[in-house]
Structures are given as C-alpha cells and as structure tokens.
Amino acid sequence: MTDATKTLCPYCGVGCGLEVLPPARRGRPVQRDSQGFPLWQTRGDRNHPSSKGQVCVKGATVGEALNKDRLKHPMLRSSLEQPFQQVSWDEALTVLTDKIQTVRQQLGPEALCMYGSGQFQTEDYYIAQKLMKGCLGSNNFDANSRLCMASAVAGYLQSFGSDGPPCCYADLELTDCAFIIGSNTAECHPIVFNRLRKHHKKNRQVKLVVVDPRRTETAKDADLHLAIKPGSDITLLNGMAHLLLRWCKLDALFIEECTHGFTDYAAVVEQYPPEKVAQACGITVPELETATRYWAEAERVLSLWSMGLNQSAEGTAKVRTLINLHLMTGQVGKPGAGPFSLTGQPNAMGGREAGGLAHLLPGYRSVANPEHRQVLEQAWQLPAGSIAAAPGLDTWEMVRALERNQVGLLWVAATNPAVSLPDLERAQAALRRSPFTVYQDAYYPTETAAYAHLLLPAAQWGEKTGVMTNSERVVTLCPAFCPPAAEARPDWEIFAEVGRRLGFTEQFAFQSAAEVFTEFVQLTRGRVCDMTGLSHECLAPGPKQWPYPADDPSQAMDKRLYTDLRFPTPDGRARFASFHSRGLAEPPSPEFPFVLTTGRLYGHWHTQTRTGRIEKTRTMYAEPLLEMNPRDAQELRLQSGQWVEVRSRRGQVRVKLRVTQTIRRGTVFLPMHWGVLWATAAECNALTHPEVCPVSLEPELKACAVHITPVSDT
Ligand code: SF4
C-alpha cells in the first residue's frame, strides 16, 4: 500500500517513470524544501517500462520546483514600459478574445501566431491545433520542437514515408554496435545512456562508437571516438558508405526488395574515398575504417542521434544520410537495430502526434494535403476550407513576421523564446515589436515575460492530468496529484475557454482532459501513430506503446515499426537520398577563427525556468564556462578561470574560460542554459545565427563562427 502517484518526469524525452510522494505522509512531519514550501518528493517507478526505476538528478529533484516563483494570477499591462496589474480571468480572457477578433477582422487570421512547447501534454497540443488551425484558420502554430526535432521528423518522413522513431529502448540492450552521432547521451538523456552503458560493459563484443567534436561523458565510454570537425557529419557517413560498398558489406536482398534509389546513392558515395573523407573530417583513415568495420561486422546496429544532427542548416540531409547506412545494410525493422532519434522534450513526440508544428495536423497529417484537411474539418464540424492550405509560419519566420509588423497577436505558452531563439538580440527586438503578446506559463519571472502584455498562469506538471509520449513511443498518463497554484489553469482548458468565448461552443465542450484525449486518438485511426485503443482509463494501470489500434491488438504487441519491412510510402519501399555536404552555414574565418558549438549540461534543462529554481541543480553549475583546447588557449595566452569575450557577427558574451583536453582545436563550447535572469551577458544565443535547414526549417543552433579575446573584468 503506497500513497505515491505514478507519473512521468517532465524534463527530457527519455520519459522516465516517477513516483511522487506527498509532503505529508502518514505518521511523518510535512516535508519542506529549502524555502519552506511543502516538498513533493520523487523516486523512480520500477514498473515503468522505459526507465525501470532509474532517474537522473533532474527527475529526482523536480518536486522542488512545484511551488517556487509561480505565476499565480492573470496580469495585464497596456505597454511593455508599464508594470503589470492583476486582473480576473474573466477580464483577461475578454481582453484576449477581443484582441483575437479585432486582429482577425482587421489583419486576417494569418496575423495570429501561437508558439508552444514540448512541455505541453498531448491534450494541450491538440486543443491548440483545433483552436488555431481549425477554428481561427491560422496555421501559425509552431513550437520549440522546431529548434529541437524538426530535422528528425523531416528525415523520417522523407526516408520512410512517415514520422516516428522505429526503435525502442529494449534495442539498447540488444544491439551489437551502438553508433552515437551528435548526441551527448550521457548528459542529455542519462537514463537511455545508463541502459546502453550497462549492456556495453557487460558484453565485451558490443561496440560503442561516438562521433562528436568534444570528448563528452558519452565519448569517454566509447570503443572509438571520432572527434570530427563540426559540420562534417555527411562527409563521414558518405565515407563509411563508400567503404561498406567497397567491402561488399551490403544487404543486397533488403536493398532490392525494400528500398528505392540505391544506384544513384552508390554513385554519389563512390566519390568519398577514405583519404579524402578522413582529411575533410579531421580524423585518420584507420579511425574511419574501424568505425565502418564495427558497423559492418555487427549483426544489429543501432544509431542514436539528437541535436548534433538536427540543429543544422543541413539537418534533414544529415538525418537521411545516417538512415542511408541503415538501409544499405538492412539495419532496420529488427531487434537491436535501426535509426533512433532521441527527443529533447518530455512530449515533443506527443506534439508530433497532435500536429504541433506549422506544417502538420493531428495524426501525422499535413496541412498541405487536401484530404488531410478535409478529414480534420469534418471531425471538427467546421465548414470546408476552414483550415488554410499553406503551412503556417515556422519559428524563425514568426520572428521575421514580427519585424515586418505582420503579427497582430503573439501567444507564447510553456517556453522561453527570449533565451532560446537564435540571433537573440534580433529575436528580442522582434518580440518588442509585437503589438500584443500573451505569455502563458507556470513561472514568473522569466525572460520572455518581460516582452508580454498579458500573463496567463498555467498549471504545470502535477497540477493537471494529461498524457505524454516519450522517444520510444511509450504513452504515459500523468495524473494531477496536487491543486494548481492559486488561479493557474491547465493550458488546454485556457485554449478551450477562448474557443468557446469566440463562439465555438460545440468544438470545445470538453469536461475533462480524458474527453480531449478520446477525441484526439480517433484522429489517429489507420495512421502510423494509431492509438485508437488508448484512453486515460486504459493508461491508468500503466503506460502503453503505440501503435495501439483498437481493432488490431496484435499491432500493440509489436515494439518496433516496420518489422514487416514495408514502409508507409506509395510503393512500400524506403527511400535512399544522396547529399554532398555544404558544410557549416557560417564557417570560421580570419576575423572569427573559432567554431562555437553549443549544448547542454547534465543537471540543467533548457533555459533553467525549472532547474534554476532547484538548489541542487543550480549549484551543480554555478556559471556558464567556455571550453577551449589547451593549445588554442596557449596561443591566445589564456588560462582557466580567466574572463573572455566571445564575439560573433551578431553579438557578444562574457564568460569564464575552462581549458580542457576534451575539445578539439579550433572549436569552443558554451552551454545554452543561461539567460539574463541567471547570468548577465552570458546568453549563448546572442552568438548563434538563424540559418535554417531548407526542409525542416530548424536553425543551426549548434555552430557559428566566433572571435575570443581576454577581458579584465566582468
Ligand atoms: Fe527525467 Fe530525462 Fe532524467 Fe529521465 S533522464 S529522469 S526523463 S531528465
């Protein structure tokens, strides 16, 4: 008998199961945090299939952030120069709906923008799509997933015919070769890495290859670390394909029966002899050969990637080039094998299912597809033509639309773009131009709140019920275990009430999140992400993995996609695609000689909205440090602890230096977690540029060119 609530960790896409214990437990005094707030303690849920009781420091401490610095009431002000005044929900929503109607009438629906988040539960995402894309006729809903997983979505879609990671975490313990590229899994997805590390340590024949310009905590465990030059991923992968071809290590039958486009691809990779590739990537030929040999000799190869491939101006090409290796060796659709993207956020996957990007509709549908629009319009009881045919504004295009005064109302929810957008000074200037910004969040202050006219208090994890899907397609019900802070309300309820006030009473007549989810899953029928068999009730005893169709329970038993080696393309075959790398969008130059790469630290999450308020995680990393190779530091006469100014073509930051052997020469690293709330003049994205992948529209947050000089003080 326990009084714990089973739920999901609200941080990363690993999606670890948690048990939450109330502050007052039988016979014990009320537990309190360092500020005297009642403390909800967390521990790993041993029965959760994804994490089996394990949690990292973030999951173990998340309860401490439930009460601190909460936005408790709606707040309004007439201009950014004025202080906020507390208002009632009725007044706040009257102002908001009046603004929406005025903007729609005067500027058209395309002047309405919403920017959401992978922190949403699926119900929040779904209702936001119904409101924006269906009822209001604006496809301008994008989410911070655009900065995170958009390239993986596009890569899967183009190579396999549908989004959806084909693998599952059990594959971590079944693989013979794990090939990690562009992911510091040990720090950013710690429990996934724990599972892999254990398997690797226990089985000496299992190989671990890590491709990263930094010798990260992940790379330290590798049998082979390829410290390639930033941006040379495609060249490396083409070079490996070249060797596989030369060594005849192909799965000819798989290529013949299950794929399309191999001949053209083979002609391209012929142009990547080892010497040329090794030189371009900054590695040796034996290193390239060893990596390829590990892949070729393994019965089951699992590749894992994250932001290092996705956050690139050629992100989709990188993802597809990696998938090519799986296709040419038949390493997909079987246990222990396949390309596996690790999602950044706890419910970025649910966002994809619910259509939470500007070009998507619920159920892995596309706004550009007339049949898909018709399905949604009928389901939502809206007139034909309600959903616009063109994709809406993606994240960076919203910034550009603000610059052109084409946005009448910007609604930001559960994310902190005033820290996380690239080319930050420009992005912040654009936010200042917004005639009316609604900011809906659980915390106050945040950096983005400074750009808002209306603040709406959102209930957060633990205060609302909904579902989240993790990287391996496991859907977990996250029940409310405590009341919302003061007047805070679940995001989906806020969206639904706005919809009702705008006259869409039938469309938003939901009494509970369970009803919202039930409506949503009906829209997945027959799609790759079919979860028609799921409901809050069915998820209450424990998580389930999709596909979970109501009428074909056998599919629910299959933990992997494409095990029948048929893909959801018109001819059932996966697609090869060949690319030559264009290199970095902003390569180093005499004026800006270093490549800055950006990333995350083990104990922090995004812009610290939560982890900055937890003593343990905050004090693990007192400040951001710029990592530099000792030989570079020697040339510049710099040493650890010294203050430096890092300058790019767009801005500058001042940080302390950390001289370390773990980074290759010519490259420096800065974590992305600090905004002005936590450290002045240390915003990593003041340096980054907004060049995007032309397919996924994901910005190249991972690399830009910088100049470094010593400064005497802060
Ligand atoms: Fe939470 Fe991710 Fe840590 Fe698991 S690995 S406890 S999901 S932050």
UniProtKB/TrEMBL annotation:
UniProt-annotated stretches for the region Disordered: 27-53
The cofactors named for this UniProt entry are: [4Fe-4S] cluster; Mo-bis(molybdopterin guanine dinucleotide)
Question: Does this entry carry the keyword Aminoacyl-tRNA synthetase?
Answer: no
- Whether Oxidoreductase counts among this entry's keywords is yes
Q: What's an example Gene Ontology biological process for this entry?
A: nitrate assimilation
Q: Could you say which protein family the record assigns here? A: Belongs to the prokaryotic molybdopterin-containing oxidoreductase family. NasA/NapA/NarB subfamily.
Pfam families, per database record: Molybdop_Fe4S4, Molybdopterin, Molydop_binding
Query: What GO terms fall under cellular component here?
Result: membrane
What is the primary gene name for this protein? narB
Instruction: Spell out the PROSITE patterns in the cross-references.
Output: 4FE4S_MOW_BIS_MGD
Protein name as annotated: Nitrate reductase
Q: Which GO terms describe its molecular function?
A: 4 iron, 4 sulfur cluster binding; metal ion binding; molybdopterin cofactor binding; oxidoreductase activity
Q: Give the enzyme's EC designation.
A: 1.7.99.4
Please list the residue ranges annotated as the 4Fe-4S Mo/W bis-MGD-type domain.
Answer: 2-70
